[in-house]
Amino acid sequence: MQLFNSLTKKMSWIPQKERIWVLVAISASFLLVVWQLWSLLHLPTAALHDRRFEHTFKNYGSNARLALFFVLANYVLAAIIKQRVWDRWSYLKKGIVTLLRYVKRWHTPAAIIAISLIVLHVVAVFLYGFKWDFNNISGLLALLVLLPVPVSGLFRYKRIDRKWHMRSGLAFAVLFLIHAFL
């Protein structure tokens, strides 16, 4: 009990209503990364350069892409709500507000799980063999831009981020879309 109290005091950056789901997402992400890294590191060397292994790391990337679309929906829906055109269609605006509330609640846990899938994707790509082509370089740039996003997200809870979370998140979203679709 004392350990839990000290852990929650250290996590006072995160609001009480989100804290349990953030802890669940961190725990699930940690278990997922450890389990998948263990299985990746115990593959035979010949299997690492096989076409079937390429599908493995692409699956990590595809799952991360789905989670990131959910995370980015927070910003898209917030931008849609701010448009004045919705004043005429109040019933549709109410539905979007409800959806935004749901997406906003799960923004942080989904982002944590997405980051763990991105880590697995990066490790698997390096195990498969990193080539200096456009796709790998754009992914590496997206990863470098992703690094300050969670840190600035913590600052965002205390309102001391000066919009760095949104700026670095937007830069990551652009690089991520270039990496995923070009």
TrEMBL record:
Full protein name: Ferric oxidoreductase domain-containing protein
Species name: Paenibacillus ferrarius
TM annotation in the entry: 20-38, 66-85, 106-130, 136-157, 164-181
Keyword set, alphabetical order: Membrane, Transmembrane, Transmembrane helix
